[in-house]
Amino acid sequence: MTTLSRECRKGLTTKFGQEDRGLPFGSVEQTLRKEVEVWFLGRDRNISVKHERSDRGRPGEVLLTYSGTTKDAHFKFRVDAQFTLAGAEDDAPAYLKSLNVNVDKRDFAK
Fold this sequence. Notes:
This protein is an alpha+beta fold. The chain has helices at 2-18, 28-43; strands spanning 23-24, 48-56, 61-69, 74-85, 93-103.
């Protein structure tokens, strides 16, 4: 899972850096959720992920929690993304600053 989370981070960072630049910040959370699910579906059909919850941290920060399953394991992971905002409004253009995908080792069961 650690290798898979690194691949996911790299893929999502590239996607947001090239195609999703300047999205209104109000739609970033929904777009990020869709991109994570599409990435896992395209990477390995044996892994199913389910969005559990979304949080907003500080201004420009989006936190997503997912649960996932494979043939023989259940796990949870978090996607933490920070964006630079070009304004103070909710619909201000957002540019990806950093993105992390972390697997919670405490919630990993075989």
